[in-house]
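Box S1 | Example of a co-folding query
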Amino acid sequence: MCGIFGCILKNGNAAPIIHTSLKCLEYRGYDSVGIATLNNGQVNIKKDQGKIDDVHHILNLDDLPGSVGVGHTRWATHGAPLKVNAHPHVDCSGQIVVVHNGIVENYAELKESLENLGHTFVSRTDTEVIPHLIEETQKKNPSFTFTEAVLEAVKKLAGSYALAVISANEPDKIICARNESPLVIGVGEDALYCASDLTAFLPMTNKAVMINDGELVILTSGGYEIRRIADFAVVVREPKVIDWTPEMAVKQGYPHFMLKEIHEQPATLRNTLRMQGHYLDLISTFLDRANEVFLVACGTSYHACLAASYMFSKLAFLPSYPVYASEFVEQHGKSVNIDSTILAVSQSGETADMLGAVTCSQQRAATILGLTNAIGSTLTRVSRVYIGQQSGPEIGVAATKTFTSQLSVLAQLAFRLSNKRGKISQDEMDYLAEKMEHLPQTVEAIILTQEEKVKQLAKKYRDAKIFFFLGRGINTATAYEGRLKLMEIAYVPSIAFPAGESKHGPISLIEPGFPVIFICPKDGVTHKTLIGNIMEMKARGASIISIIEEGDEEVKALSDDYVEVPKGIPEVLSPIPFVIPLQLFAYYMALEKGVNPDMPRNLAKSVTVK
Ligand code: F6R
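Box S1 (continued) | Returned holo structure for fructose -6-phosphate
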C-alpha cells in the first residue's frame, strides 16, 4: 500500500507541494520516498530509502524546479526498501516517469519480453515495467501521443494499479489510471492534483473527483478528462465538495482505523491472491523437505500458525508444530537442529520474542523462513526465504486485516505443498482454489449484511462480565482470535478452548445467561460434535451466540443469537470469513464500553521487548 501524488500548478514550483502532500500519505508506507518534476524538457528526480523527513534532511526534496510533478511514498512489496527500488521509475531514456501503487501481477513476463527487446532494468520492482512498456509502445507506434501510449500500455497490465505518469516530451500533462487501487483527483483554483487519497490535497482543495476501476485521467493545467480504458469513451463526472477534516480523511471517513482496516479486508485478501508464485513455491519446497516444521509466532500471528498447522496437515499431510515464540527457546531450544525448519510469522517482523526464537534456531543451524508484512524488517534479513503478506500498513493496534492476509498466504502455501506431495485430488484442489478466489467477495458480503446485526449484539451483551469462545478443529484458532480481540480491545475477560475441552473443566463456570460464542462452519466432520457441545452449554443455561453458515437451521434453532456467513465455505478456509464477525464484535463492544479501539491501554503495535 504505497501513496502516490501528482500536481500541475498554474504558477510556482510543484516540489514543495508534493513533499507536503506525501507527508499526509506517509501512513500508507514509509520505506522510501521520491519526487520527479518536469522543467524545460528536463526530468528532475530525487529519491532515497527512508522516511520522508530523513530523506528531505539530506536531499532537500523541495529543491526541484518545475510546476508539474509526481511523488511517491513506498510500502515495499517487490524488492527491498532500497534507493534503487524507490519510485519514481523511468524508462531507458529517462524521459518517461511513473509512480505506482498496487501490484503488477504479470510483471515477470512483461519484464522478460521487454528485456528481450533490449530494455535495461535497474530495480527489482514490478513498477519499472510500466515506463518501459510505455516507451516500447511509443517506439512501435511513433504516431501515438503520450496519452495513447499510456492507454495501450495499461491495457497490458494485469493486477492492481493507481499510477501517475509524466513525460518530458509532453510536459504539460499527468496521465493517471486506476484498477483496484485508490485514485482521486483534486480540483483547485490554480492547480490539479491526483493522489491515492483525499488526505494529500485536502489542505489545498476540498473539490474531489473519485476515479473508478478501468478509468484513465488526463490532467492538464486547463482541467481533467476521464476516459474508459477499454474503449477510450469519455466519462463525465463533476467534482464533489468533501466536508471531511484532514483526520477524517486519513481514516477515509471511518471513525477508527480498526473499522477501516476490517473493511479493507476484501481488498487486502485480493492482494494476497497476487502473491509471487515463485516465493510460495520456494517456501513450500523447503517445508516439503523439512524433517520437522515449527510455526513460530506471537499473539494473533500465533493463531494464524495454529490454523496453518491444520491446513498443512489436512491438505499436504505435513505435520507441523505451532509454538508461542516466547516459549520456543525453553521448549525446543535444545532439540532444534540442522534438520529443523522454522516458519516465523510476524506482521511487524520485529517482535522480540519471535526474533529470540529465530536467533536460537539459527545458532543451531535450522532453516529460517519468514512471513511478514514488513519487507526490510529484521525477519526478512534473517530469513533464508521470506514472503511479504501484502496487507499494507496496519495502524490500529489490534491485528485484523493482517490476520486474514496471513491465513490466506498460509492457505496458498498449503495448496502448493499439497500439489507437490500429490495428496489431494486435482478436482478437490481446483474446488479449493475457486473458493479461495471467491473469499474477498465472501468477506465483502459478511461485512455488508452482518455488521449492523453484530452492532446490535454488542448492545445486547454490553454488560456481560465474561465470554466463552468455542470452536473445533481449525476454528479453535478462530475462537482464540475472537477471544484475544475482545479482551484486548474492549477489556472484557474472555476464555477460549477447543469445544471438546470445555467439558474437561471450563464448563463449571457456566450459569444461566453466561454468553458462549460458537464458531460453527458446516463443512467437515466437526459440525455434528459441535452441536453436542452447544447442547451441553444450553442445558446449563448458557446464552448461545453462534457464527453459522446461511441456512444452518439446526444450529440456528439452538441459538439465542446468530450471525450468518455465506454458504459453502471449505473447512480449511473457514477461519478467514468466520473471524470477521468476531473482529466487528470486539470493535462494537469497545464502542459500547466507551474505549478507543485504536489505542488499547498497555499495548504496542510492535512488541520489541521480551
Ligand atoms: C493482537 C496483536 C498482537 C500481535 C503480536 C505479534 O491484535 O496485534 O497479538 O499479533 O504482538 O505481532 P507480530 O505479528 O508483529 O509479530
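Residues 298-301, 346-348, 351, 354, 398-399, 484, 488, 606-607 surround fructose -6-phosphate (CB under 6 Å). The domain at 254-437 is CATH 3.40.50.10490 (Rossmann fold).
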